[in-house]
Amino acid sequence: MAPMSQSRPYHHGDLRAALLASAERTLRERGTAALSLRELARDIGVSHAAPGRHFKDKQALLDALALSGFERLNQALASANLPDTALEPRMAALARAYVTFSVDNPELLELMYSRKHDPDIGTELAASAELSLDSFVRLVADAQQRGEIVQGDPEGITLVAAAGIHGLAALATNGTLRPDAVLAGLDQHIHLILHGLKPR
Known about the structure:
The chain is mostly helical and 200 residues long. It has helices at residues 15-30, 37-44, 58-80, 87-104, 106-116, 123-145, 154-173, 179-184, 186-195.
């Protein structure tokens, strides 16, 4: 086994976590193309064969990174979800959690969605990706029961709101809009999603 890196020490028994942390750092700094199991092994100071115990190839590593991302996003959304709160602030809280995650993890989010739409996606990753919309779908269904949102397919209605929120997140991460400006204007954006543009 190669000597352990002084800057990023590897602790025995936690190889998978160390590989994922190093992979996410590489993804953020140099993109997906720069990811290599051999380079990750060198980065954390283990033999080039060691990553094979956890990831059979680069695709398996990418799937694990995407799964980790969706799990963290789902946790952020679950923490932000306030079932007993009125519709507008509840949706704004969820949107804020989503936009914040997107701004903090743009490269990871791009990987997550590229894997989500791959026809060969694994069942665990597919389930976690589906769960990312679940908080919004439940919000819509709850609001429909209380008469706060029009009746109809909750998933279809969620798609309209989610498209607007994801669009804002994309504008914030690609540099079109400043992230702080997006977050500052989020309550107004949610108000427009819920009430529309028509004069009242």
